[in-house]
Structure formats: structure tokens, C-alpha cells
Amino acid sequence: MNWTVYLSGEIHTNWREQIKQGAESHGLAINFISAVTDHEASDAAGDLLGSEDSNYWRDHKSAKVNAIRNRVLVEKCDIAVVRFGDKYKQWNAAFDAGYLAALGKPYITLHDEAIIHPLKEVDAAAMAWATTPEQVVEILLYTISQK
Amino acid sequence: MNWTVYLSGEIHTNWREQIKQGAESHGLAINFISAVTDHEASDAAGDLLGSEDSNYWRDHKSAKVNAIRNRVLVEKCDIAVVRFGDKYKQWNAAFDAGYLAALGKPYITLHDEAIIHPLKEVDAAAMAWATTPEQVVEILLYTISQK
Amino acid sequence: MNWTVYLSGEIHTNWREQIKQGAESHGLAINFISAVTDHEASDAAGDLLGSEDSNYWRDHKSAKVNAIRNRVLVEKCDIAVVRFGDKYKQWNAAFDAGYLAALGKPYITLHDEAIIHPLKEVDAAAMAWATTPEQVVEILLYTISQK
Amino acid sequence: MNWTVYLSGEIHTNWREQIKQGAESHGLAINFISAVTDHEASDAAGDLLGSEDSNYWRDHKSAKVNAIRNRVLVEKCDIAVVRFGDKYKQWNAAFDAGYLAALGKPYITLHDEAIIHPLKEVDAAAMAWATTPEQVVEILLYTISQK
Amino acid sequence: MNWTVYLSGEIHTNWREQIKQGAESHGLAINFISAVTDHEASDAAGDLLGSEDSNYWRDHKSAKVNAIRNRVLVEKCDIAVVRFGDKYKQWNAAFDAGYLAALGKPYITLHDEAIIHPLKEVDAAAMAWATTPEQVVEILLYTISQK
Amino acid sequence: MNWTVYLSGEIHTNWREQIKQGAESHGLAINFISAVTDHEASDAAGDLLGSEDSNYWRDHKSAKVNAIRNRVLVEKCDIAVVRFGDKYKQWNAAFDAGYLAALGKPYITLHDEAIIHPLKEVDAAAMAWATTPEQVVEILLYTISQK
Amino acid sequence: MNWTVYLSGEIHTNWREQIKQGAESHGLAINFISAVTDHEASDAAGDLLGSEDSNYWRDHKSAKVNAIRNRVLVEKCDIAVVRFGDKYKQWNAAFDAGYLAALGKPYITLHDEAIIHPLKEVDAAAMAWATTPEQVVEILLYTISQK
Amino acid sequence: MNWTVYLSGEIHTNWREQIKQGAESHGLAINFISAVTDHEASDAAGDLLGSEDSNYWRDHKSAKVNAIRNRVLVEKCDIAVVRFGDKYKQWNAAFDAGYLAALGKPYITLHDEAIIHPLKEVDAAAMAWATTPEQVVEILLYTISQK
User: Fold this and answer.
1) Which residues of chain G does C102 touch, with a Cβ-Cβ cutoff of 8 Å?
2) What whole-number distance in Å separates Cα of residue F95 and Cα of residue C28?
3) Which of A19, B28, F13, F141 is the most exposed place for a label (fewest CB within 10 A)?
4) pTM
5) Residue H15 in contact with residue H90, Cβ under 8 Å?
């Protein structure tokens, strides 16, 4: 059986790479998928359709172009990991978590202890809360390989 | 036809009251529903089931007790208003927005211009972005009463 | 049992009034619902949220504000009537028909013989094709009152 | 991951070929699917089941035979492109858009600026509006290949 | 709580009346709904939309007009009773049973012992098989009133 | 807003009455619904359809007649309480919990500490675990009345 | 793209073979699936679980064992062909048609002109009515191969 | 066509191996999937995320980590076998059965005659009740291979 894991959220640290490498080192056959993680490219996703004077509409167009990808990935994944860093608002990550919860897709949150309280609703709908990419890898290893 | 409007998000300003009063002043027959907005009561929602040593589990229990109400409200509403203030993480509001989007329920965001950029994914899935409770009332008035 | 009938499409003739009066004259207990039919009001639905320089974004905002109402009505109706007149593109009516078809809601088309060919896909998913409001009333009368 | 893209709408210009060639020139692994685009064959799709005296029933039969294919394609696609040309009613394209919207499938509209206004409801539910096949290819390239 | 019971199938005996009277005699608050049971009216349901030369299209039009009602009833009912008599093909009753099964709606079949074998697939998806209207009434009484 | 609460599980103690009385003493407007709780009546639910020699088929018929009611109640409830006592297998209660979980309906489990371990999967999908009917009443009070 | 076609209904003539051979002769890559068509094997499907004294329960057990296969096939197919012969009740075929209709799966009916009237509801929900296996093959050829 | 069969329930006897070997001996191409069956590993599934003082939370964490796998398997399977042994509460097996029933997935129960009565609700929603792994293999053989 193939497993598809959607990696959602923070784009400023290399947690995605750590999870992918960890999974690879265990020989796990996982298809990792992810939103665009190049911040500038993501913000400019809609620019190819013409420039905008208003910040709101520029953001709007880019967010929708990004959503083409993200909606498909959310529908296709078996499991998701939703990562919250210690900076920025990261409302898109919480939005993804809500979307996943409504679809009944199991997800794991990945965040520090310092932000337990503001994430309590997001964690309440999660299947696990991890604090390190290694823990996520261990959960994936257990989920996929344990007899 | 009765309309049920779910008011989600920020609990530190009186935006809910302003919308309710505005709707009432126009004679709109709206059933407004909302998560618990008493911050202390909300944080303590799970305490009646026994105290917890760990902050994580106290938050977890309370968030789940609150979710009993919130899941039902999200399913029952016709329209939602999701409010983001200028303080706090408010990930629960973004979570609600994602949940609503997945269910195909139309929602209006209510927030200042200053946070357009971090809310671009949440706004992209919304039907309207308002900056004042009065605008929300006008949208509801139009939606419900316009011939 | 109460019946809710959504009247979608053309806004330049009084077909909605004819159906409502016909239903009333037969004493049918139908809750008729409809998109905003005041053309100017509909085009200006988003203006209350601020003016736009670009025609595209003005239309976009208004169409989304109107969609708040229309999505709820489409979900709430039992039956729909989708009317195509002999002028204008009326893509919103065909869009509604596709949405209704995907939800499995039965709808009746109302249009002249002259436009059978371009409407063949819309008619193919309909439960009936009527050419006059009187016929629609007769179908509703049969549907609701026939023993 | 494989992507399936449904190309819906206008059949009188070669926009489908342009998109396919553009995708191929970028090495994108896309499975393009489409309704029957041979106009005569499409109109005659039901003739094999016997001839009809009435234009309505001939169209009806053909539209339904075509719907066998189109319903399956709409369900199978990840993304759709819905093209509106400057001629004809093209209600089938708007019908497809409504169907896609109800299923929550992201779609891109492809049309000229001249028809922004009548397409505002269709565009409001779209994830992007493109004016050239090249822009569509760029969106697909970004969606599928951007890191 | 109100219960809505859809009575589907045979129209040549008075089993519907027997069930309604039995329910009434027990004071059960049931909203009974039903397809049109006047055979001639049902066959002629589409005639108001114009006459047809071909039997197939006359039947087709009438069956679709009847489907407006039946689809709504199937969606609205809590429970259904599907009756098979000893005459005629009654494929519409079996069609209704399949539709109900796919929606997960519990239904009771009502038929004689003589047709157990051809009805085995329909019975296998049913919640009960009754041979008399009195038994159906007893099941409804138990379902609604038993403590 | 009206709330419908389904009380599932153990039938040998009066926990249902305690919850109903507690809710009433707080003036909560709750519509409590429940499977048949008269053990003998429940076991004999199918007997009206004829006696059976085999225990298996007698149980089968009765379980299906009971399912007519229970499926409707599970679909209609907003919230459920699933009670596990200290005796008997009570697989029907766990079955209900799984059904509720799949539908995304929030439920509260009610059981002693002694059976935490075997109920861990059922509790993991629950929104709260209560040990007394009074706690359930408090949760309902909070859910419905807290501002 | 692979197509899966479910062949449902009559088992006493070789229409399935004709369709398969026709498809093969055109080089169509279709995965044909079907209920068990060996009448005796089908009637005895449940016998391996123990014999039954009652005809009803023997049929019941066998019909349910067969349903394991049929439910999966109905869910997996893209298109179905539902065949009605001139003998027997064939309620299982009409049941399948209702199930397919509720799932929104396009199906083709295959039957003689003589039984148009009793099949009008089944045909009304179908996408095409064919009278010969050759016509079905032509529809499949058109659906899958036409440009 | 590939078949995926989910083996749920009892972990203290080798019934899973018997079914797998039986299927293999018949050359059936079945993808068998299963929850973690190593009791200690399953109980400790959440330990990698940190130790807990409370038994409840340790069980809770582990049950949720296990649910990541089990939810995906339940969604992916075509058919399930739910096994109840003669020891332990096995509420997780009944929970799985309820979840499967709500999704409309056909399942087979596997248990001794001695526990027919307490399993009557679980059996009522099943497609077959087997008492030996050999019978399950025979059902799978019939389901997959019978012409």
C-alpha cells in the first residue's frame, strides 16, 4: 500500500527535509506532497495573470492560484502533518487543519510546547502532537511498518 | 425562511453585539449562534471532568468540550462570520474557516487591512471581506432582504 | 409537507410573478426563493465593501456577495426552476443548473423552443422542460397536490 | 503524483492543443481529458440508438450519451479549465463549471476581457481567470512543478 | 420527534390506506408521503408539456415529471415501506429500494411469501420483511412509541 | 436553537433518567432520544413478523427492526452520550460510537475508570469522557447555555 | 485513462459476452465487472455458511454474500449497463439501477421495446436506452475513443 | 481488479494468518491490511511522544496514534472482516464495525455461536457471519473469483 503524506505549514525551517530524510533512512515508501514552499514564488503565484495595484487583490489572486494545488493535495493525502513555527500568524496552516478535520483525514501537529494554548482547538482535532520532526518520522514508521 | 449565522473568532471586542444590534435594528430574523465567548469559562470547559496536572491535557479536554458545541454550530449555520482581531494567534478562527470551506458553507471574514497578507488563504476561500461590523450587517441585510 | 422552490435565471421578464400568482391561485403552500432580481442592486452588491477601479474586481466582489445568498438557496431548495430568456448570456443560470445537477436536486427548465439546441446539456440533466410559466405551475400543482 | 486536467468548453478554436503542447514542452506529466470536440459527432451521439423526428429528442438523446463521458470526466479530474469563446451560448461550459463548483473541484476560466461581466458568477467560483492558453500552461506548471 | 414515512410501490390495492388507518388508530404522529398513486394521472404526468407521437418519449416525460416528486420524497423520508404486489413488473419499486439503500435509509418490504426468491436482493438490503399492512403498522408503532 | 441528544448504550441502570432530570432541573430544552430500553421488548422486536426456530435469525430479525429506529436517531441527533456499564459485552454501544464517529457527530462517553483501557479507541474518538450522569448534565448545560 | 464498466442484470442470455467481444474487437481498454452470473452458484452463495431450513433465510444469506461483491462493483464502476430480459422479475437489476442513480453513476439500459412502459422510471434515470449489445458497444466506443 | 481486505479485531489467535494463507493457496490477489496486532506495541504507540502519569492519557495518546493507521485503512478497504474472540471486551472491533457500516462498506463477522446474542446489532449490519477462517476464505474466493 502506498501512503501519501501532506506536509502543511511553516516554510522557514527545514522540517520537511528532516521528515523526508528520516522516512527515507527507514526505507518508508511515502509520497510526500506539499504546498509551494518558496515564499516569494508563493506570494507571486498570481502575477502571471497580470499585475494588480491593490495589495488585497494581488494576495487574493496568488492565494487562489496556490489553492488549486492545495485543495487537490488535501483531497489526495492519506495523512497530513501541520507545522506551526514560533513566528508569523500561519493562519493558512490552521485553515488546512480545519479543512482536514472536516474531511475526516487524520493529521499530526508539529509545534513547540510554548504554543500549546493557542493551538488547543487545532490539537484537539489532531491525532497526535509532535515536537520534533524525528517524532513525526517515528509515528509514520509505526503507522506504515509496524506489524 | 430563517437564517442561522455563526459568529466565529475574536472574543475581546464587542463585534458580535454590534452585528446583532445592527441586524435587530433592521428587523432581520436571524438566529445568531456562537462559540462560548467567556474566555475563562472556555478555558475551564473541561475542568468539571476532573483537574489535570499537565497544561496540555487541561487545554485538550477543554478544547474538546468546546468542540461539542462548535461542531454542531458549524453544521447548523447557513452563513458564518469569522473575525480576526489584531492580537493573539486566533488559530481557532482560521480552523473554523477551513472547516466551513470544506463543508461549502459561505463565510465572511471581518478584519483590518493590516492583516490582509497573513489572511490571504482564509480570505481566498471567503465570500466577502469586511472591515467593520456595519459592513457585515449590510451584507446580511442585502442577503436576506433584497428583492 | 412544505415545499421550497428556487427560481433561478432571467430577471428581465415577470415569469417569477406569474409562477407565484399561479401557485397562489391554486392554494399551493410553496416557499419561493430567488436570487436578487434587481439588476442594479445585484451588480452593486459588493460596493458597500469599498469601490474598485477594475471592472473585474467590482464584478468579482459583487458576484461573491450574491453567492452568499445563492449557495444557501440552492442547498435549501427542494426543486428549482431555471429560466433562460432570449437575450444575454445567462451563464449564471447554466451555472446554477450544473450546481443543482451535482447535488441531485430536480430542476425544471423554462425556455423557448428557439434555444433547444444550445441548452441540450442543461435540459438533459433537467426533469422537465417547460415553455410557459403556466406549465411550471401545472407541474408544481401535480407534484405537490396530485393524489 | 499524476494530475488529471479536464478541458471543458469551446470547441471552435485550438486552445486545447495549445495547452497540451505547452504542457508537453515543459515536460509536465498531465493526463488531459475532454468532452467530444467534434461538433458533428457530438450532435449525432445519440443517432446510433435510432433516429428522431423531433429536434428536441434528438438533442436530448445526444446530450445524454455525451453526458456518460462528461460525468465520468468531471468526477475523475483534479483540476478543470473551462473555456468561453466569443461566439455561441456555451451553456454547457457554464453547466460544467457549476457542477465542478458543487464538487469542490478547482477550475480555471479561460476567456477574453470582453465577457467579464456575464461570466462574473462563473469566475467568482473559479480559482483563476486566464486570458490565454499560455497563462493556463503557466498555472499548471506552477501548480505541478514549483517547489 | 416527527417521523416521515414514504410509501412506495404497488398502487392497485389499498395497502396505503390500511397503514395510514392503522397508524391513526394508534395515535401515531406520522407524516405519510407517497408517489402519485392514480395510475392514469401518473402515466399522463408529462402530457401537459405537449403530446408525443412516440410511446417511449411520452413515458419518458411522465416518468421524469413524477421523479420531481419522488426524488424529493426519498430524500425527505426517515423510513420507507416498499410494497410489491403479485402482478406487474413493479421495477419502479425495486428502483426506489436501491435508491433508498444507497442513501442508507431504512426500509421495510411488504410482499407475499410467493415472491421471496426474486426479491432476495431487495429484502437483503431491507430492515424488515412484512407480509401484511398490520405488521407494518406494528413495526411503526414499536419504532416510534416503544420505551 | 433546539438540541437533540441521543442516549445510547447500557439499559440496566437509570442513567438516562438522571440525565433527563438533571437537564430538566436546569431548564434545558433538549429533545432526548434513545433506542428501545426495555430489554425483553427489544429482544422480541422481530417476533411480530413470525417466530423463528434458530436463535441467530430471531436475534437478526429483532436487531434489524431495532435498527430502523436507531439509524434514524443517529442521523437526527446533534450530540450523543454513549454509556458503558460494568456488565455485558455492550457491543451495540461501541457500534453506535463507531457509526457516530464516521458521521462526524460529537459524542460523550459515560463509564467508570475501571474500563478505560478496553474503551481507549472509543474514547479516542469521543469529545469527552464522563464518569457520572451529573457530569454529562454539566457538559450539556455548558454546551447549550454558556455565553 | 482506464474505464470500468459494470454489467448488471439478466443472466440467461449471452449479452455480456457480446459486449465484451465487441469492445475487444474495437481494442477498447475496458475493465468489465459483473455480479456472479452462474445462477445456481449465486443461489447457493450462502450455503457454505451452513444450511437453512427456511427458504427465506437461505435466500437472505445468499443475497447478502452476493452483495459483498455487488456493492464493491457498484462503487468502483465508472459506467454501468443494466440489462432487462423478457422473463423473470429481475428486481435485482432495477435495484442496481436505483443504487447507481443515487450515486450519480451514469448507466445505460438494455432492453426490448416491449417493456418500455414498466421500465419508464428506470429509463428516466438512465443516460441511454439500447436494444442490442451492438448499440452498447457503439456507445462505449464513442464514449471512450471519440475525439 | 485488486481487492483490499481489512482484517479488524481480535489479536490473540492466528486467524489473520489462516485467512492470508487460505487466500494465497487459492491464488487470490488480495491486499490484506490490518491494525497493529502486536499488543504491547499497540499499547505503547504514543509513548514516543513522551510518557504520561495518567493511564487515561497514555491510552488516549496511543489509541489516537493507532487511529492514524486505522482510519486510513477503513477508508481504503473494499471489504472488512471483523473478528470477535471469546475473551476481552473488544470494543474496538465493534467500533470498527459501526464505522464501516456508516461508510457503507460490506463486512463479514467472524465469531463463535456462543456470542450471537450480544453481537446481534453488529451482525445485523454485516453481510455475512462466519465461524471459521476457512469460511471467510471461501467467501473471498467466491466474491473475487466466481464467474
Assistant:
1) 104
2) 44
3) F13
4) 0.98
5) no
